[in-house]
Amino acid sequence: MDSRTLWIQTEQSGRYLFSDEHPFHPVRLALTENLLKHCGALDPAAGERPASFEETEAIIEHIHRADYVKAVRSLSVESPKLAAIADAGRFGLEADGDTPYFPGMHEAAVAVAAGSIAAAEAVMSGKADRALHLAGGLHHAFPDRASGFCVYNDAAAAISVLRERYQARVLYIDTDVHHGDGVQWFFYTDPNVFTLSIHETGKFLFPGSGFTHERGDSSGYGACLNLAMEPYTEDDSWLTCFSEAIERAALAFKPDIIVSQHGCDAHAFDPLAHIHCSMSIYREMPRLLQALAERHTGGKWVALGGGGYDHWRVVPRAWSLLWLEMVRHPLLASIDAAPDGGPLPAGWPDIKTTMSPDGPLPTTWLDDVASWEPMPRRAEITEKNKKMLELALQHIG
Ligand SMILES: [Zn+2]
Fold it and tell me: What does the record list as coiled-coil region(s) (predicted)?
């Protein structure tokens, strides 16, 4: 294992919980940590502590609009005032919406950002080469409103630290099945932050943006790249588009550091989207990012979590594979040698929780895709994605 990789503690972020019924749930973190512990690949207690609350709060107040942060604060108390509740919808926080306010929301969302800032700071200062903060990746939050389960944009907070403290050129790569819209719009006119997002096309999926013609604006034109994938895209087409786009972007942009977002909701089992990929992309994308960082940023790589709503079957394996790649764990040799990735360690899902899986749990690292029905429109989908990729790359040097 490689000691130049930091795990950022996530215990404070466990309070970022809308309700037990809400799809964005910290049980995903607990299951991932348990799986990694069973592999002997993690001691979370030894992880790096998040940045201080006060420091993070100041950064959040700097990147988000003052009236929005004030609204989040007012809605975070046990019994918010009627005026604050009446205003919640204006800030994307209405009780019956996707991102409902809850007691302690401000503190929990600041805690999430604190982890991502610590990760960025550790890597850019040279304390580590790589850092992973799985509670982060809240990529839909806007400067002035919450959206898509995201209150404060921890990725934007971390990138702003990299810009302002280090003047670093940041390549942000978003692998969530939903367009990384918040981060894109935060830096849309900034030529020093390149945002690249691969996702299911906004024609069919939230948030309805992320088309190839979104390429940045004013001096930031060209520092934005969107791969809008067809519904039912499978592994090969996804990975072809991803690998070519990240290489072209890095070559043209010459980043100092890579910040990646690892929502794992492009898996076929995910209930919120229609992409039909298997666990293989969650083995391959971290491998491609590690190699990209080696070639273009001297290894500097910050990775964050994100979406992923099949809590038991998908997220723990996907995020564990990411960490194993980041630490270059010897277990990867056996995972790569077996078509199904080989067996998961016994007992990995035994955590203390009131949540339970809907059905049988996976027993191997990768999926047995040979037993899956092939997509009837595979050739047509692959061709459409290829054309989309050509269009997306037109403006990249
Ligand atoms: Zn997502």
Answer: none
63 in any annotated domain: no
**In sequence order, what are the residues at sequence separation of 6 or more whose Cβ sits closer than 8 angstroms to the Cβ of residue 210?**
179, 180, 181, 184, 197, 199, 201, 202, 226, 228
Question: What's at 137, amino acid-wise?
Answer: G
Q: What's the rounded Cα separation, in Å, for the pair 343 and 283?
A: 15
Cα 178 to ligand 1 centroid, rounded to whole Å: 4
φ and ψ at 147, to 5 degrees?
A: -160, 145
Residue 199 designated active-site: no
Count of structural domains, the chain: 1
Ligand 1 centroid distance, CA of 166 (Å):
29
Strands (E), 69-192: 130-133, 170-174
93 lies in some domain: no
| Domain span at 317 | 5-49+111-393
Catalytic residue among 106, 139, 140, 276: 140
Could you tell me the strand order of the sheet in which 5-7 lies? 5-7, 130-133, 301-304, 257-261, 170-174, 193-200, 224-229
What pTM did the predictor assign? 0.98
In a domain, 149, yes or no: yes
What tens digit of pLDDT does each residue of 305-327 get?
Answer: 999 999 999 999 999 999 999 99
CA of 305 to the centre of ligand 1 (A): 10
- CATH number of the domain at 290, please: 3.40.800.20
- Residue from 244, 242, 227 nearest 284 by CA: 242
Beta bridge partners of 194: 171
Residue 249 near residue 227 (C-beta atoms within 8 A): no
Instruction: Please tell me the distance between residue 56's alpha carbon and the centre of ligand 1 in angstroms.
Output: 24
Q: What separation in Å is there between the alpha carbon of 58 and the centre of ligand 1? A: 27
Would residue 355 count as lying in a domain? yes
List pLDDT tens digits, range 325-377: 999 999 999 999 999 999 999 999 999 988 889 889 999 999 999 999 888 89
